[in-house]
Amino acid sequence: MTYFSMEDQRLIFDGLPLDQIADRFGTPTYVYSAKALKEAFRAYDQAFAPVDHLICYAMKANSNLSILKLFAEQGAGFDIVSGGELRRALAVGAAPDKIVFSGVAKSVEEIKLALEVGVRCFNVESEAELERLDEIAGQLGKLAPISLRVNPDVDPKTHPYISTGLKDNKFGIAYADARRVYRKASGLQNLRIAGVDCHIGSQLTEIAPFEDALARLLNLHAELKEDGIQLHHLDLGGGVGIRYSDEEPPAVSAYAEAIMTQLRGMDLQLVLEPGRSLVGNAGLLLTRVEYIKPGEAKNFAIVDAGMNDLIRPALYEAWHDIVPVCSQPDTPARVYDVVGPVCESSDFLGKDRTLAIHQGDCLAVLSAGAYGQTMSSNYNTRPRAAEVLIEAGAARLIRSRESYEQLLENEKALLS
Length: 416
Ligand code: LLP
Known about the structure:
Structural class: alpha/beta
CATH topology of the largest domain: TIM Barrel
Organism: Parachitinimonas caeni
Subunit structure: Homodimer.
Largest sheet: 9 strands, mixed
Distance between the termini: 57 Å
Cofactor: pyridoxal 5'-phosphate
Bound molecules: ligand LLP
Number of helices: 12
CATH superfamily of the largest domain: Alanine racemase
CATH architecture of the largest domain: Alpha-Beta Barrel
CATH class of the largest domain: Alpha Beta
Helix content: 25-40%
Strand content: 25-35%
Keywords: Amino-acid biosynthesis, Decarboxylase, Kinase, Lyase, Lysine biosynthesis, Pyridoxal phosphate, Transferase
Mean pLDDT: 96
Family: Belongs to the Orn/Lys/Arg decarboxylase class-II family. LysA subfamily.
């Protein structure tokens, strides 16, 4: 499904001309389509309809409150990794019993809050965390629902920075230790074993690593049964990858088919934590060309969005398509590095892009809905971008552009 079209040489996104949105809200601005978000969620929900399932949107991909509210209204639960993300979920009225809490470094304060509000499950990543959780639950007189995040040692065949299920990654409990740690958990007074969990990596473009991870978890499930430990759910972690350029990630329906085949006959609820595939291609970043700078070796299109707005190209050498929002047939195309205002040579949004553009033109950086705004920073004291949602044919602001007052306030008040 594409949400783009061209009309009178203007790029239309979910029914609205992007140049109009740039003029109205300024740049840099993230723009999302509610329709695309809902359809992405529905793809998962429908594909897994034959089995008992819960889709917990991994909000680290994009945690704008309006987007969380939209997903909650579609019936989504949430995967959170911090007290901050928990507060976001609560701020949109998300049901705590649909929240799973992942993350390697849950603090005492975060665990307390999660126990008090009653999250569905803690995805426990170490024995030390298990002990801390048991202790705090005991103090609060609560029973903490847990699953162990097992590290299945499966190669997800993705970028090393976003592989999470290999032996040398910091995440989860080693597969070889999992049975023992479950036995230990079953002996702890203030814990209730709810399920098992894994997450092997992000931007997976093949189904096989998911199948391998699932096979290992099901094997563990059988072993635990022998030990008298019954799991209620199995959480297979994040979702499938998305298309940024020429990748061919599996359709959600094909992924679901494979997973459901393996799960047949199992008395387990399936929990999934997709992030990128729910939001990535539902969003883009609008930016304006400040200067065209011909160079000796390269031509540069210097734009007003930088690595502080979208760090993926700098951090992972990630590819994002970049297209002018108004095409100009009479303008000669040149090859540009599209670079930002930040004082780093890694501050690029795209390299060697053939574009027919002038100073002042607006560009759309595509597939930027996931890990865009959430990974943005104030580096170079740059205010964070605005965010806009297109819904029912209208665009509305869902996060105002940060003001310079906001940027300085925490320090200004403390000037001696
Ligand atoms: N669950 C857990 C425990 C995770 O760590 C992640 C992502 C997800 C779910 C969501 O996975 P997804 O469906 O999005 O693949 N910043 C990187 C991606 C980091 C992913 C980290 N974990 C990027 O921009 O590519």
